[in-house]
Design a protein that fits this description.
The protein is 3% helix and 39% strand. By secondary structure, the chain is mainly β. It has 2 domains: 113 residues, Thrombin, subunit H (Beta Barrel), CATH 2.40.10.10; 103 residues, Beta Barrel (Thrombin, subunit H), CATH 2.40.10. Strands 12-13-14-17-16-15 form a 6-stranded antiparallel beta barrel. The chain has a 6-stranded antiparallel β-barrel with strand order 4-5-6-10-9-8.
Length: 258
Amino acid sequence: MRRRLSLITGLAVLVGAGVAATVALAGPANAVADGNPVTPGHYRFSVKLTMTNIPNPDGTHRNSACSASLISSRWIITAGHCFHDVNRVRVSGPVPYPTMATIGRVTVSGTGGHDIAVVWVQQSPSTDIALAELATPVTDVTPLGLSGRKPKVGDVLRITGWGATDSVNPVPSDQLRTGQVKVSSVTDTTVGVIGFKPKPTTSACLYDSGAPYFSEREDHHPVLVGVESDGPDCPHHLEETTSRVDNTISWIHRIIGG
């Protein structure tokens, strides 16, 4: 079953790849189903987005979360569907609800790193990707690079994310987690991936929307290949859908300036 929008007791709850909405962001959780916790100092470009006071069509409000990654001192990249209006139409411009980016640490409740407001969003015209501008620049975290190479089936990628560990009563994570996947398909706009390590069921989960899938090679800085978009209930051994990055680089550089 693909993740989907459902209505429960009058509250809109998005059961999607990282944008599951809850009444409160309380309670500790892990992230990336069947993954491993990230040790301090690693993958500091990983970003947790905490959204609050999101309007519902019935006049109520909810909170939610997404994952993302830092790609320049002032810009992050995430899933386009993380930013939308009350009718779930994706929006560009000033952020539609208060959104805080946690950058540079592996636990939200920990110390160090940065908590910076997101002030502007720009939607990709071709895929489920959004660029989000930070209120102040981050100068002590090396941004994640962008891949200019078309991914190939069999490529091994790493995901880092702040999602839940399963789809049963999911809550946003306090702990950054990671795992490896293999590319299983490539289209003009998407990269399909399946679990690889530590388990075949290593997979993105609720609140992992926008999580980076990046290539790691010896003596090379990691580069972003895909951005988490959608997938089945987690954990799972099926294909997860990510938004392809290499053919959007020109648009990304036009927005972020460089």
